[in-house]
Amino acid sequence: MVEYLAGNRIRGTTAERPNTADGTGGTKTTDSGDNIHTFTTTGSSQTFTASGALTVQYLVIGGGGSGEQGGGGAGAVRQDTGLSVPAGTYTITVGAGGTTGGNVGSDSIFHTITANGGGDGNANASYSANGSGGGGYGGGGGQTSGQNGGDFGNDGGDSSTNLHGAGGGGAGAAGQNYTGSSSSGAGGAGTQNLIVGSTIGESSGGNYYVGGGGGGAGSGQAASGGLGGGGNGDPNSPTAGDANTGGGSGGSYNTGEEAGGSGVVVIKYTPISTVNIQDGAIYYDTTLNKEYVLYNNAWTEL
Fold it and tell me: What pLDDT, in 10s, does the model give residues 8-50?
């Protein structure tokens, strides 16, 4: 049984020591008592440290693919609740968008969660990752069929018409086919960012959306990118995928190819606090015969 002694001292077993858990790393904000950590810098230079075991909600998005004539596919969007994260330090990887000219985006990684980069709007090769496929285009060495999407994405659209691109797949919907109308295929829509308090994504109707596919392009034809950061396709002036949405970039016909949007990692959790114990408290662990001091909601051995 835990004993609360004079002088801010506590005595008990290892199992009885009051639990604490919090996190550090990235840009830390709060929402109704919960902590949100947002990691936006591409590469693997950042870490997340949990001072104790946490149960987290997460959003992990791979980098978007870049368009050529077909629109680039969105990076995989993985989000869920209830992920157990033991105490420790974890490397965060944020995937870059695919470089200009029809290239696949890079992966984003947190703990056991990997979100692959999106497919390319060049569509010369198959896509076997877990994001969205790039849009196809007819002729010019490209494939008429869009790439197949993975478990956390959708297919790119198809185009059988010479040098006209279809839309890249989005996290919420497939890219649109090119049907010979006055515009190329639009990018597939993304999906809503479900982390309340996070403003990552393209704003619409009071919510934020991520993982939009890039619009296709053709001779004299343009197409819009998917909601969620997908770039617009345009013969001469396509737009890039939005940063930190994993959006695919728009396709082009003549000039002006752009890169896919970078990915992101967002982590949300409720910190575990020793509400009634003040910093500086000393806990004597009778199991280990050791003393610990509480500082900034973490126990440190003396």
Answer: 889 998 888 777 788 999 999 999 999 999 999 999 999 999 9
pTM for the structure as a whole: 0.88
pLDDT digits (tens, 9 = 90+) for 277-296: 788 899 999 999 999 998 87
Number of CB atoms found within 10 A of residue 70's CB: 48
Cβ 239 vs Cβ 222: under 8 Å: no
Measure the CA–CA gap between 33 and 20, rounded to whole angstroms: 15
Residue with tokens 């959790």: 269
Q: Which residues pair with 164 in a beta bridge?
A: 218
Residues 114-144 as b or e (16 or more Cβ within 10 Å = b): bbbbbbbbbbeeebebbbbbbbbbbeeebbb
The sheet that has 290-295: what strands, in order across it?
3-5, 9-12, 282-285, 290-295, 298-301
